[in-house]
Design goal:
- This protein is α/β, with parallel strands linked by helices and 536 residues long.
- 53% of the residues lie in helices and 9% in strands.
- The chain has four domains: 171 residues, 3-Layer(aba) Sandwich (Rossmann fold), CATH 3.40.50; 62 residues, Helicase, Ruva Protein, domain 3, CATH 1.10.8; 115 residues, Zinc Finger, Delta Prime, domain 3 (Up-down Bundle); 144 residues, GMP Synthetase, Chain A, domain 3 (2-Layer Sandwich), CATH 3.30.300.
- Strand 3, helix 6 and strand 4 form a beta-alpha-beta unit.
- The longest helix has 21 residues.
Length: 536
């Protein structure tokens, strides 16, 4: 008996068998039960997500010979159902839109559509890759879609719905098939392996599920390739040996070397991956995927469902994530993504990859500005920065209980002491508050107003615990709890005409460059500003 590939052998036969597209399956079942089946459907989605399979299930449901009418549960045993499964039913015509795209092909379809089905209830046309039809062919099809015979149903499938004429789409019920999640794919792969009585490792299933990129058909095809190797127990190492996939342990070792700032180790790990037959682009892709997992673990925790890892891999990722912070991982991912496009158009891909790996490994790890300022504000680091750059006299430490101001009720008095108040907050926060002024003090609440062009400074004062720092400093100075309210002056930059917005943007950049907090960071790192990006 001829071998049947897994993608065909385990193809869904009924709506209840569908994996990953349950909402669409349920909607079609309800349409059949309530006699609301449309005359034309458009199924869209990437390859291997079940569009053609769903079309065949719908066709079987409409034409099952064992039921008195359309049924949501086809028998899958009658002549019609069996013929549809094989793609050989005389009343269910499957057409490849890529090879039957001309207007003459569609005219033949239109001429045949007027004849009633030979044995079933409906004559059903399934046109795959319908976006490949010519404009003339689409236009010829329009008239039939506007006034279709009662015995004709159309099911169009496409991976590029934007290429289907809007006039065609408006005459169809459209269903967008989503990519199937790795969790769904992993579950299905385990079921297939168990039914085939094949031994496997958990790591392999997860790796295959991620490698499929949302396509169940691709996952089963990859599994077929591994089974054909004849290895009794399928392991993750087979992915590297037979499919040319990166070895996860080697990728992990490379990321660890980058996290340890080990330039030599990072180059050696890169060499191992290159010598294993991987292209430079594949290595960059593997790094992006792994660092993405670390970023999610760092932000959402090792137990997050957003990462598809085994328990052992989760523990490993959690430990490795400690070597990075989120800013560094974000920077690394974006840098590697830009690199992969450069390497595709370069004859020097390996030097480009190694240079970028060294750049990531030898650079200081990213930390946010507040953390850096916190370090530079410590007595030892502050002394070091001031001594080396001679930019300011040594700051006098505050002594608890000393220098306390009496509670003042007049806003003018607060203004008189404002510089004295913010001086105790350190250069970072003090620099930001230099763009604000006290405008009101009522019920122990101090209102600070920023200029209309200083929205960035206001936002920074409201984040990273600065607002609490300001409240604590005021409470310390006055001896009673003080609340703080921040606001922008009337007339924001968004209300200004385009030329003024450009001027405001330039003004903001100058303010950021001259901000004491930014200067402190630059001095601490002996760095220069290369670019300022607006993240809002």
């Amino acid at each position: 008996m001829a071998y049947t590939v897994l993608a065909r052998k385990y193809r869904s036969q009924t709506f209840d068998d569908v994996v990953g597209q349950e909402p669409i399956a349920q909607t079609l079942k309800n349409a059949i039960k309530t006699n609301h089946v449309a005359h034309a459907y458009l199924f869209t989605g990437t390859r291997g997500v079940g569009k053609t399979t769903m079309a065949r299930i719908l066709a079987k449901s409409l034409n099952c010979l064992k039921a008195d009418g359309p049924t949501a549960e086809p028998c899958c045993k009658c002549d019609s159902c069996l013929a549809v499964n094989l793609g050989e039913d005389i009343d269910v015509i499957e057409i490849d839109g890529a090879s039957n795209r001309r207007i003459d092909d569609i005219r033949d379809l239109i001429n045949n559509a007027v004849y009633r089905p030979a044995r079933a209830r409906f004559k059903i046309y399934i046109i795959d890759e319908v976006h490949m039809l010519t404009t003339e062919a689409f236009n010829a099809l329009l008239k039939l879609l506007e006034e279709p015979p009662s015995h004709v149903k159309f099911i169009f499938a496409t991976t590029e719905p934007q290429k289907v004429l809007a006039t065609i789409q408006s005459r169809c019920q459209r269903f967008d098939f989503r990519n199937i999640s790795p969790a769904y794919i992993s579950k299905q792969l385990k079921s297939v392996l168990d039914q085939e009585k094949i031994k496997y490792e958990e790591d392999l299933v997860l790796a295959l599920a991620k490698l499929a990129n949302g396509s169940m058909r691709d996952a089963l095809s990859l599994l077929d390739r591994l089974i054909s190797t004849g290895v009794e127990t399928l392991t993750a190492s087979l992915l590297e040996e037979y499919l040319g996939c990166p070895n996860s342990e080697k990728v992990c070792g490379l990321v660890a070397a980058i996290g340890d700032s080990d330039a030599s180790g990072a180059l050696a790990a890169t060499g191992e991956l290159t010598n294993s037959g991987l292209t430079e682009v594949q290595i960059a892709d593997a790094l992006v995927d792994y660092m993405r997992d670390l970023m999610v673990v760092k932000a959402a925790g090792a137990k997050s469902e957003l990462v598809i890892l085994t328990e052992q891999q989760r523990k490993q990722a959690e430990q490795l994530a400690e070597k990075f912070d989120i800013a560094g991982l974000v920077y690394s991912i974006t840098t590697l993504e830009k690199l992969r496009w450069s390497m595709k158009n370069s004859e020097s891909a390996r030097p480009l990859l190694e240079a970028t790996i060294l750049r990531l490994a030898m650079s200081e790890h990213f930390i946010n500005v507040d953390s850096l300022l916190g370090q530079s504000n410590s007595p030892q680091d502050k002394k070091k920065v001031i001594t080396e750059h001679h930019t300011a006299p040594p700051a006098q430490p505050d002594v608890p209980g000393q220098g306390r101001l009496p509670l003042i009720s007049e806003i003018e008095s607060i203004k008189d002491h404002w510089q004295e108040i913010i001086k105790s907050l350190g250069p970072g926060t003090a620099g930001l508050l230099s763009s604000a002024e006290p405008v009101r003090f009522e019920n122990n609440t101090l209102t600070l107003e920023f200029a209309a062009s200083c929205a960035v400074q206001k936002q920074m004062c409201e984040s990273n615990g600065r607002l609490e720092q300001i409240k604590s400093a005021l409470t310390e100075k006055f001896g009673v709890p003080i609340a703080v309210e921040l606001r922008l002056a009337a007339g924001t930059a968004n209300d200004l005409p385009a030329p003024d917005k450009t001027r405001i943007k330039s003004q903001r950049q100058n303010e950021i460059i001259n901000d004491p907090a930014v200067k402190t960071v630059l001095m601490g790192l002996d760095a220069t500003i290369t670019n300022i990006e607006n993240t809002q």
